[in-house]
Amino acid sequence: MPTAIAVTGSDLALPAADRTTPAAVVLPAPHLQPLDEALTQTAAVLEHHGHLVVLYSDACPAEHVRRLHTLRGLLESDRIALVKVDLPPLGLAVLARQLRELSRSALSPGVLACAARLLAHYVHAGALLATVGGLDRVEVDLRAHMTSWLPGVQFAVLAAPAPHLIRVERHSTEAALPAPSYATELMLARGHFHGDWVGSVLAPAWQVRGAHEVPLPAESAHWWGTKKLVEFAAAIPDPALLHRLVSSVRREDCGWCGLELLGDRCAFCGTPGRGGEHVAAGGRAVTGGPAGARGAPAALPPGGGEPPVGGPPAAAPAPRPGTAPGPLPAAPSPASPASPASPASAPPDAVAPGETPPAARPFGAPGVPEGFGPPCVTGFPAAPAPLPPDAPPTGPPYPGAHPGGAPLPGPLPGGPFAGQPPTGPPPAGPPYALGLSPVAPPGVPGGVPRPQQPRPAPIEVPHP
């Protein structure tokens, strides 16, 4: 059986163009049908057709939308697709009839449900309004709002596929609304407004194949913000052309429910489509993500090409401070002769056959020079070997050091002795002569007087 197409009102179920088009399923509002009857009806439709696609607009009442989600939740069925369409009510009714005509073909339920968003872009829906004061779904400027207060003013508004608003003169014979570039059929529904601009001006300008008048849907007054309107919708009437349009779109399988889908999201379970893929010249899907996500990427052509996904291999991280950067090069040892098989250009860290690597030699093992300990594992250089007693001095002596002490290799980096060492004691100034403290507290120049404590008088103790 074909997939069932449902709407939220009987005024949205347009009459079929022929006898082979299936009828639409109507899911009434909560105040028109109890919940148990709605459950029984929906369960029977699922058992008979297998899948159900429900179309509703943003003008549908909130309690009616909750009823649709309640039915789907109580039946615990993922074979019900709730599709919200951004079209006026009459445009939604035209779209529902197109899906009913496509349900007779071999399109799968997932493709048929996703085709609602695709075919909505080919529906030109609008209205002729007497006022735009309550219109909030199409952008209206302040000048149009002020003009709508004048008597006898008419506005032509196109809501889909792109919003457009113009002011219609009373005796105008030109339709300034953008016309579709393909053959269409016009549907119009009159409210409390008797303007004939749609049938006499718009239909000839758009070169429609025919114009048919239907009753105005109940949701139209809420969608357009007024009851004084004439709503119209032009769409493709040929089912064969619609089928070729839908079949030309690339399909893929849903990763959750397994149904086919068009676009970026499944209409039944809401799972997003596979991202990061594109179709190659031969129709094969090529993954653009990392290897292993959805199969290995295609091999690069011989002779170069783009780098593989993920970029070049990362360089080795630099050693952290305080850690050993690696084994130290082996020190040259006169006891270990060079092997004749080793080339003359061997690296300095090469190890002769039979010799222990530097990092594994114990302290004092052969091959380690006398006076050196094991390799440094803290990142600091090892201590140098003690110099012989008769070695000449290598730097200026530390000021105040013992004359016989070992001199330092050079001036200390930083501190009071950085650069040129002082040649003598600090100059004695008045603070030292007056007994002031050489260290001055913050904010007091020159220091503070140092208090003089009187010395105690000696006490004579008589000896026995």
Structural summary, described in words:
With 464 residues, the protein is of the alpha/beta class. The chain has helices at residues 35-49, 62-75, 89-102, 109-119, 142-147, 197-206, 220-224, 239-247, 430-433, and strands at residues 4-7, 25-26, 52-57, 80-85, 124-129, 154-160, 164-168, 185-190, 211-213, 229-235, 251-253, 260-262, 277-279, 285-287. It has a 6-stranded mixed sheet with strand order 7-6-5-10-8-9, sandwiched between helices. α1 crosses α2. The longest helix has 15 residues, at 35-49.
Question: Quick summary of this structure?
Answer:
Helix content is 19%, strand content 14%.
List the helices and strands and how they pair.
Blueprint: E1 4-7, E2 25-26, H1 35-49, E3 52-57, H2 62-75, E4 80-85, H3 89-102, H4 109-119, E5 124-129, H5 142-147, E6 154-160, E7 164-168, E8 185-190, H6 197-206, E9 211-213, H7 220-224, E10 229-235, H8 239-247, E11 251-253, E12 260-262, E13 277-279, E14 285-287, H9 430-433
Parallel strand pairs: 1-2, 1-3, 3-4, 8-9
Antiparallel strand pairs: 5-6, 5-10, 6-7, 8-10, 11-12, 13-14
Helix pairs in contact: 1-2, 3-4
